[in-house]
């Protein structure tokens, strides 16, 4: 089994392909499972976040597993980890707004403060207006105002605003449930 020897170039490439293929199959299963679950939920906003995050973790786990199997990458990984810790502090300081929007996006979804389809009155630092929530993503929220214009606001601004829910999102009716 020389072609699976992690010390050889061929073995490292084969193990890399296997790690990527395994990660791809697991991510594909997550996407398919998400589609099946989506049909039974009334609010799918959190499901999209969880699905994307689980897929990212799957590929990250595949890469870490691969790096752990290859002896040359193990030593390199230790040195890289030291450098990455310093770089992460620098990037964290430089990307404070972006990271704040990311955290605010997770909080918006997990807390259920607003949901896709909600009609809201938003009083923020940019003014007050009525709108309908079209999309909540990791970085920003897309609203549609009464004139039909899309208003794209950073999630940190949404979280720092006073929100009045005028009308909750319309719930989908499950065709399998009969009244």
Layout of strands and helices, then pairs:
Layout: H1 9-38, H2 45-69, H3 71-94, H4 96-111, E1 119-124, E2 127-136, E3 140-145, E4 150-154, H5 155-159, E5 162-167
Helix pairs in contact: 1-2
Which features would summarize this protein structure in a list?
alpha+beta, SH3 type barrels, 5-stranded antiparallel beta sheet, 5 helices, 5 strands, elongated
Give the CA-CA distance, first to last residue: 62 Å
* SSE order, one letter for each helix or strand: HHHHEEEEHE
Largest sheet: 5 strands, antiparallel
Q: Provide the structure class.
A: alpha+beta
Mean pLDDT: 81
Strand order of the largest sheet: 4-3-2-1-5
Form type: elongated
Discrete helix count: 5
Poorly predicted ranges (pLDDT <50, ≥5 residues)? 172-179
How many structural domains in the coordinates?
A: 2
Protein described:
- With 179 residues, the chain is of the alpha+beta class.
- The protein folds into 2 domains: 2-94; 114-167, SH3 type barrels, CATH 2.30.30.
- The protein has 5 helices and 5 strands, in the order H-H-H-H-E-E-E-E-H-E.
- It has helices spanning 9-38, 45-69, 71-94, 96-111, 155-159, and strands at 119-124, 127-136, 140-145, 150-154, 162-167.
- Strands 4-3-2-1-5 form a 5-stranded antiparallel beta sheet.
- A hairpin with a 4-residue loop joins strand 3 (140-145) and strand 4.
In short:
This protein is α+β, with helices and mostly antiparallel strands. It has helices at 9-38, 45-69, 71-94, 96-111, 155-159, and strands at 119-124, 127-136, 140-145, 150-154, 162-167.
């Amino acid at each position: 089994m020389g072609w699976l020897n992690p010390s050889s170039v061929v073995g490292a490439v084969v193990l890399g392909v296997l790690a990527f293929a395994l990660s791809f199959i697991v991510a594909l299963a997550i996407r398919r499972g998400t589609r099946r679950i989506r049909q039974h939920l009334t609010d799918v906003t959190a499901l999209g976040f969880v699905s994307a995050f689980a897929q990212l973790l799957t590929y990250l786990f595949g890469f870490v597993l691969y790096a752990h199997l290859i002896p040359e990458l193990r030593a390199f990984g230790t040195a890289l980890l030291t450098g990455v810790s310093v770089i992460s502090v620098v990037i964290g300081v430089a990307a404070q707004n972006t990271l704040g929007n990311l955290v605010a996006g997770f909080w918006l979804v997990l807390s259920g403060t607003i949901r896709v389809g909600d009609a809201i009155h938003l009083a923020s630092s940019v003014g007050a207006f009525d709108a309908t929530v079209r999309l909540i993503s990791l970085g920003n929220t897309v609203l549609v105002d009464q004139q039909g214009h899309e208003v794209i606001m950073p999630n940190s601004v949404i979280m720092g605003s006073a929100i009045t829910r005028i009308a909750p999102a319309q719930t989908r009716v499950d065709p399998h449930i009969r009244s």
